[in-house]
Each structure stands twice: as C-alpha cells, then as structure tokens.
Amino acid sequence: MSHSKAATIFNKDEKKVNWHDKALWFVRHKRDKSAHSVKGWEELRNLGHGIKAHTLSNLDTYLIQFEENAIKNGVQVHWAADADEHNKIVQSILKAHNAKKVVKSKSMLTEECHLNPFLEANDIEVIDTDLGERIVQLAKEPPSHIVLPAIHKKKEEVDVLFQEHLGTKPCDGDPQYLTGEARKHLREKFIQADAAITGVNFAVADTGGFVVCTNEGNADMGVHLAPVHIACMGIEKLIPKQEHLGVFLRLLGRSATGQHITTYSSHFKKPRNGAKMHIVIVDNGRTEQLSRPDFRASLHCIRCGACMNTCPIYRRSGGHSYDSTIPGPIGSILSPGKDLKKHSTLPFASTLCGSCSDVCPVKIDIHTQLYKWRQIITKETPQPFIKKTSMKMMGNIFSKPSQFDKVGKVARWSLRNLPKGMINSKPNVWGKARDLPLGPKESFEDWYKKRNKDEQ
Amino acid sequence: MKVGLFIPCYINQLYPQVGKATLELLERLNVDVMYPLGQTCCGQPMANSGYEYESVGSCNNFVSNFKDFDYIVTPSGSCAYHVKKHYDIIPQTDDVVKVRENVYELCDFILNVLKVKNVGAKFPYKVGIHKSCHGLRGLRLGSCSEKVTEAYSYIGELLKEVSGTEVIELTRADECCGFGGTFAVTEEAISVKMGKDRIKDHLDNGVEVITATDTSCLMHLEGLVTRNKQPLKILHIAEILNSVN
Ligand code: SF4
C-alpha cells in the first residue's frame, strides 16, 4: 500500500490523529528544551557528524580493530552478510547452549532481520522486554516508532491487551497498575531465560566494548541473569574511541526523549565468569548504501527517533503508514536503498520542510536525500502515466514563454468562469477540502505590459 | 544597481496583486527594478516531483532572463531557494553562478541589501507569521526552533516596524503548513490536516491576518480558510509592506 493510502486511512479518525500528533510533539518539545540548555549543542552535532563520517570512511580498519579487541576480551565475534545469515547464526548459538527461552531488549536490527518469527518457527520463545515492544509483540504488530514502539496505542488499548494476555483486571488504562503488572510478568521471563539478546547502540573499536542504552534497565536485567548474551549490531554502530561516547551519549538522550542522558547506558566488555558473550556483526545492505555517495550519510543514524517526532507527516500518518522497519524520515531514505519499488512512495511522503535535517543530532541531510531519491525513483520505477506526461508538458511550457502565457490565460479563464462545482469536482483532488483561488482577469505580466505602455 | 524582478508562475497567473505589491514596494524604496518579459518558472514544481531532468529548460530560461542583473529579487523564498540550491543540474557557467549567487527573497533583500528596516507601511492588525519552510530552513531567513542559535527573523524584523501591526506569537513557531507542491495532491489527507492544524494555531492565538514569504503556502491555507469560512485574512508579506494608505 502506498504511504498516502495508509495515511488516508489513519486520518479517518481525526481525534486519534490529534492525539498522536500531540503525544509526539510533546517529546519534540522536551527535546527542544533539553537541547537548548546545552550551549555547545551545534558544536556537538558537528562533532557527532564528523566522527561518524570519519568512521564510515575507515570502516574496514575499525571493524577489524573492534573484532580483535573483542576477541581479546573473551567475546566470540560472528559476521553476517544478510538477515538470513544473522538469524541462522543466532539460532546456532542458542542451539549450542540448548537455549529455548530468550529475552530480548530493543534492537531495530533484529526487527529488520525478522529474527522473532524465525526463532519462533524453530521452537524458541522470544520475549521482547522493552515495555513498548512487549505491548506490540502481544498485539502482533510491528513497532511504529524506533524509540517509542507502541506510541500508536492508547493506554486503554493496552489495558484490554493485558487483560487478554496477562490476565490483568480492567483498570481504565491506569498506567501505574499496567506497568506494575508488566513488570511482574517480565521478571518471571527474565528469571527463566536461557539467553539474552540485546542490540548495540555504540561499539567502541579501541576497547572492543559496546554500550546498550535503555530507559527500563531491561537489557541489564536480561544479560545479568542469563548464561548467554548475544549482542547484534549493524556495521555502522562503530565509533573509534571510548571518549567519543561523551559526544554521542549526550546527543542521544536529549534528542530521543529530552533526557540529559538515557537512564541506563550499560557498558559491556567481557563475559562474566562462567557466562558466554557473542557479538553478531551484520551488513544486510549497509555496504551497498555506503557505496552511494548521495546516501551514505544515512548510515550516521544513531536511532534517536527525533526526526520522527518532529516530522509533521509522521505525526499525522503514524509509523505503520511507512510499512518499513524504520519509519519516518530516516526510514524513507534507508528503505528505498533496500527495495526501491516497494518503498517508492516514501520519499514523496514529505513536504521537504527540512525539520528532520535540523533536528538530527548527527546532521544527516535527510530532506536533501529525500529529494535525491525522488529523482532516482521517477527514472527507475514505473510512474503513473498522468504524472509523467504532465511533468513533461510543464517542462515544455515553462521553457517557452509564449506558451506559458497562452496556457495561463486559459487556466485563469476557467477558474473565473466555470461553476465552482465543476472546478472542485472529483478529478480535482485539491478541491476536495480546499477552494481554488479565483482566476484574476489579468495576469501580473498583462498588467505590467499595460502599465508600461500607459507610461510611455 | 540593476534589479530583476522574478514573479513566480503561480503568482503571475493567480495572484497578480502580490506581484504588483512587490514591484510597487521596490519602486517606493527607490530600487531600479525591471521585470524581464521572457520569464516563466524556476523549475521547482518538476524538480521536487522527481523530474529534475524535465526542468532543465526552465532553468536555462531563468538564467538567460536574469543573467544581466546585479540582483534578482522574488516574493518567494521557495523559488529563490530552488535557484540557489538546485541549479547544479545545469553546467555552472559564469552566468549560472552569478544568478545563483544574486537571487534574493524579498524581505532578505530589503533588510540585508537595501539595509532598510522601516518601509513606511501602516497595517493596524494582529498578524501571524507563517514561516515558510524553504525560506526558513533553506535560505535561513530566520532561526528555526530545532537549532540552537540566536533567534532572528527577517520577516519579523520588517513587520515590527510596520505601524499598527501586532505580531502574534504562535504555539508552534515554525511547523510546516503541508503545501509541499505536488504533495498537496498526492498526499491530500495529510496536506489538508497539516493546513487545518496551522490555521487553528493562528486562530487560537487571536490572529486576524496570516502572512508569509511564500504565496504557495498561502494559497493552500487560503483554500482551507475560504472553504471552511474562517475569520482570517491571508496576505503575502509584500502586500502588508506595501500598505501605505
Ligand atoms: S536520522 Fe538523525 S534524527 Fe533520525 S533517528 Fe537517526 S539520528 Fe535520530
């Protein structure tokens, strides 16, 4: 389904749209307050951008350095070229440890690879332990936001969902009660888990360690209890040095939720005594994106979600309207790189207002990349005949001033003289909810010519 | 100083009063301004829709019309931005480089080239500024709420000096109106919703007149205001700055 179709469906319930918009605007507003309290904010963004650009240009070196250091620390490192290989590696690790029950903290990479259904099909129970992710998991839906996976759900809906799956009492969506119950439910899962899977926010090349950021402490809870820890990361998660965390952790917490720092920034380096630690490093299309000069900066992303919260379209169309693992502006420049045809409407789901690029903590030129994808999509995917020919016609008219004048006259006459009902009729999508301007008798140019004649 | 006036295609055809106000205003400020008759469109509608290659003719026509002027002034942040940012698709001859360097949005030109703040206008109304995105985040005609920079606004500075005008603060200072060129049609539902929300913000804060540096945003907002019979007037900034009587 095209983005606009999905967005139209989402907009049938205007109250819900208003609520969704306000909830996310609130987060954007909190981000503003906390960013504006940092004097050197723009300098931090420059640094973040620079470090990422440098790392991506030397990715081979840093990946090898990271692997060497991680191995020295006693961690087992695996490489996966694509989603399929990633899933198989995770499964084989679990099999080797005879692990049947897995707890997983938030990881967009495992979403991207569709790890859960793969493991479930292999008789392994996977429980998402981030509260928002657990909610969408129970609802059998994909996350609609990368930081706030269940932001599209109202607390009353969570109430019903928990009654059905966790046997809670009806509570009118009382958040305190619901989170309390979720906590009890998850504690049990943590205790029973045979293995814990986490994502990786930052992998540090010069130490071989990595950092996982959560607000609920669920990554630590899983890792500290289970005998096996599997951390899955995309190749772009690398940063060269430990000290660079000082830049990224400050940018991430503020940009994501307006917190000065995420509640838990958990540093992992080596397995504790008797336990095992694995890292799976995944490409899955990233080197291809890296090879596209116009789009490589999309790999700077630290998954803070700020571009979603700020996007006036995302806020009013919901994350599911993007039909891709990463929704919103950043998703709209990443997804076409994976499947141009499937995601061909996403770069057009934007007014190119540029708010995403200005909010992005690592200064990805998101809206410029959207513009560039548009140029590629019209050439490489089938376009509606009408759009193609009308653009060609416009191109011709505008390159010849005499034609432009003639066409303008006809258009103005029609607006003035045709009945409103006809002008705002069905084929005119503009006119469904908006009036068209009244066509003036005289164009500016007519007036200008006349005025100059009169003056002579 | 020779100034060429660029009147965007839709202003020329649908909002000639904006073109007139721009010309009269510049003349009142003693600018030697001329409107080259061979001009059409900057090419943006095609380019933003993904058909940059169909806009080459427009770009060349624009350059040949304006290459001999010291400055090119236009009552549209969006078109000025397009020329500056996206005219990299044609060979960068001296003429093209010159045109790209010297194209100015109207308020920017008055404030930063003419160095005039008070244009002598009188407009006793409560005015809400719609900060059109391409001007704001493209040309940086003002600070945006995302970046941590000093606050400024060219259009705001000019309006502050207009006699009788009260500039109204909005709840969301610079959210997009949802026009977006063909977006207005291809993503109709969202476009309309965004426009409605913008208008509500202005109404909630007691605005009587919405103004902006871009008629395209205003056409979209006006279409909604007229359809929904809302008590708001929509005027381009040139029309306000040209209100002398
Ligand atoms: S693109 Fe930028 S703003 Fe969007 S999620 Fe990534 S880092 Fe955050």
From TrEMBL, chain A:
GO MF annotations in UniProt: 4 iron, 4 sulfur cluster binding; metal ion binding
Single GO biological process annotation from the record: lactate metabolic process
Bilayer-crossing regions: none
A Pfam family assignment: Fer4_8
Highest taxon in the source lineage: Bacteria
The entry's keywords: 4Fe-4S, Electron transport, Iron, Iron-sulfur, Metal-binding, Repeat, Transport
Keyword 4Fe-4S carried by entry: yes
Domain 4Fe-4S ferredoxin-type: 291-312
Signal peptide: none
Entry-linked SUPFAM superfamilies: 4Fe-4S ferredoxins, NagB/RpiA/CoA transferase-like
InterPro entries documented for this protein: 4Fe4S_Fe-S-bd, 4Fe4S_Fe_S_CS, FTHF_cligase-like_sf, Helical_ferredxn, LUD_dom, LutB/LldF, NagB/RpiA_transferase-like
Record-given protein name: L-lactate dehydrogenase complex protein LldF
The organism's taxonomic lineage, starting at the top: Bacteria, Pseudomonadati, Bacteroidota, Flavobacteriia, Flavobacteriales
From TrEMBL, chain B:
Cysteine-rich domain sequence ranges: 3-83, 127-221
Record's protein name: L-lactate dehydrogenase complex protein LldE
This protein's GO CC annotations: cytosol
GO-annotated molecular function: oxidoreductase activity
Any matching Pfam family: CCG
